[in-house]
Structure formats: structure tokens, C-alpha cells
Amino acid sequence: MATGSLEATIQTMMQELKGEIKGLKEDLIKQIGSLRTDVESFATEIKQVQKDVKEVRAEMGNAVDKIAGAEERINQLEEGEVTINNALKHLLREHKKINQSLEYQEQKSRQFNARIFQVIEGIEQQDMVGFVKSILVEQLKIPADTFHICAAHRSLAKKPTGEDAAPRSIVVRFLSWNTREKVVKTAWAKKDITAGGKRIYFDRDLPEKVQKERRRYAPLRLQLKEKKIKSFIIHPAKLKVFEEEGSFIIYNTPEDAETQLRAKGLISTEPCVGAHRGKHGTLRKEGAQSAPFQRSGGDEETLETLLEDAMRGL
Fold first, then answer.
1. Which of 103, 109, 160, 115 is nearest to 280 (CA)?
2. What is the Cα–Cα distance from 299 to 310, expressed in whole angstroms?
3. What parts of the chain have a pLDDT lower than 50?
């Protein structure tokens, strides 16, 4: 009985064990299946990552090629910039040489010339040389046999129209520098010289660059004149201002004059020198004219300014 009962117990335990093993096996199979699915999914993800990495590598390769190309172009641009800078320096040096040569030639061509300002248009009646000669002889009291006028004509500026328009200046060429100086200085000493009942003025025929600098004083002189303050332009382009008790101050540049006169309250606070850039400007009313062979000053100044600015940046 005992043996039979034991065998029955063992048999029951074996059945239970087989059931548990079977359950474990089924669970294990399920887990293995799930793991396989996860592994396959992971493998798929790895393949996608590998694909993405491959694409990234390709893009990086393209980027590296582009960077290399950009570096090459930058190097070429830098080399080109050096070449351009060297050429610009050379151009500026040559420009200054040519400009100095032109200024010298212009000065030489004008050294025998004088200018007469504020002479009424048409008063010369087709005989400019005879008209000028009569002024020198009759008003300046210079003997006719002591000077020779080679040529005389109105400046080549456009003929003015309108009653208030300033007349063109008269350019007079003498045979020598000494004669020119004698005529101009005699006229300055006499002061009251007239033609057609209107006061006229003599001066040297100055280079265009000096004329431009002188014209920049015009707004200042007009304001000083309104306050009954005397001022004169002295050679080559300085401003002489008479103050109280006969004293005077000489300003070397328009900017210096504007700054100091404004500080003294003699002119308005509005900028005037820098804004006065007209070809003839307000000073034309006082007789200033453009030169007979005036160059295109605006273009020339622009080129020179651009070159100098570029040189400062090198």
C-alpha cells in the first residue's frame, strides 16, 4: 500500500513537473520569438542608422570638397587683392604725379595772365584789347609803351543771362610776368577803378585749384559783410579778417576760418564752408569766374578722394 501510494504521488509530481516544464517551454518560446522580433527590429534600425551614417559621410565629403573649393577661391581672392592693392598704390602715385604736373603746367600757362572782374558784358564793343589798354593807360596811368597785351578775352564760362547775373571775367595775357605784376599791384593800390560807372577789380589769373579754395570762403565773407566786417582773400587762398581797432587775423583754410569765426559769434551756427561746392557759387557775385581751360573738377576730386580712402584702408 505504501509503495502504491508513493508511486501515485511520484506520478502526480511527474505530471505536474511536465506541465510546468511545458509551460516554461512555451513561455521561453514566446520570449525567444519576442526577442527575435526585437533583434530583427534592432537590426533594421541599425541598417537605417548605417544608411544615415553613410549619407552623412557623403554629405560631409561634399561639404569638405566645398570648403576646399571655398578656401581655394579665398586664396585666389587674397592674391588678387594684393595685386589690386599694389596696382592701386601705383595708380595713386601716378595720379599724384600727373596731377602735380598738370597743376605746374596750369600755373606756368597762367603766369603772364591777369583777370578783371565785374566788367559789364558787351562794354568792350568787339575790341577787348583796346578796351583793356584804355583802362590801363587812363585809369592806372601806366604808359602805353611800357606794356604789351598779347591777348584779351572773356572767360570761357557760359554767357550770363538776366539782369542780376554776374558778368564773366576778362582774361588778359601780357608779354611778361613783370608786366602782369605791375598792372595787378598798381590796380590794387589805386582801388577805385571803374568801367561803365561800375567798380571793377584786378587779380592774378590763379590756378583752378586755388580758385576753388578761394570760392569756399564765399559764404563766410557774405556773412561778415552783412555785419560790416571787412575781409580779404590774400595769396594764395587765405582769409584776412579785420577785427576791432584795426587788428586782423589770417585764416589758412576755410574750415579753420569757419570754426574760429563761429566760436567768436561772427557767423551763424549752420555749416556753410562744406556745403558751398557750386562751380561758380555765391562768390561769383563778387567776380569769381571759372578758369578758361577748367578741367572736370568734380570727377577729379572724386577719383582722388576714392584713391586716398582706399589707400588708408590698405
1. 160
2. 16
3. 275-298
CATH code of the domain in which 222 resides: 3.30.250.20
Dihedral sign from CA coordinates of 254, 259, 262, 268: positive
Owning domain of residue 118: 111-205
In this structure, how many other beta carbons lie within 10 angstroms of the beta carbon of residue 58?
10
Residues 170 and 212 in one domain: no
C-alpha cell belonging to residue 280: 561758380
Number of domains in the chain: 3
Instruction: Give alpha helix (H) positions in the chain.
Output: 2-110, 128-138, 177-190, 208-215, 218-226, 254-263, 297-312
Q: What is the pLDDT of residues 6-58, one digit of tens each?
A: 788 888 888 888 888 888 888 888 888 888 888 888 888 888 888 888 888 88
CA neighbours within 13 Å on the CB side: how many for 255?
Answer: 1
What phi and psi values does residue 205 have, to the nearest 5 degrees?
-85, 100
Q: Which class for 131: exposed (0-12), middle (13-18), buried (19 or more C-beta within 10 A)?
A: middle
